[in-house]
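Suppose you are handed a protein chain with no further information: no name, no annotation, nothing but its sequence. What can you learn? This example shows the usual starting point.
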Amino acid sequence: MISRPVYETAADLKNEKKVADFVSKKLSCRLVKLPFKYQMDYGVLSIGVDDKEYITGMIEIKCRKIPKDKYDTYMISAKKVLTMLQYMEKFNLNMKLIVRWTDVIGSYTFKDNNIYNIGYSGRFERGDLQDVEPVVYIPIKNFDIL
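A reasonable first move is to predict its three-dimensional structure. Written in structure tokens, the prediction is:
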């Protein structure tokens, strides 16, 4: 297996943590950073009737350097969306995409009955062929502002 470069920096993780802290307070939930292999950034923890903590949802956090209304859609990897939908189906988890734009933070909740349009795009400026892939376009109007 060929390993890919990791583009996530310490500054990216710091920004992600700030957003996670904001979301945790705003939604009154406890978040836990998930290991990389789970493909989602945070698990949402809830206390069960047996006093054990259970993951009831997962959150993917993205930080963008543009305002929310620059584009009509938010582009995300189709593989990431497929992973979210599988977690929803197999474990009955709530899956959210949280995006911090320069002007607001938005939340999109994935639903199993939604139809997602798949395109082919990605990042071209790094010259990494694996940065261009099948993607899903989520209308910006479908995000709730937190």
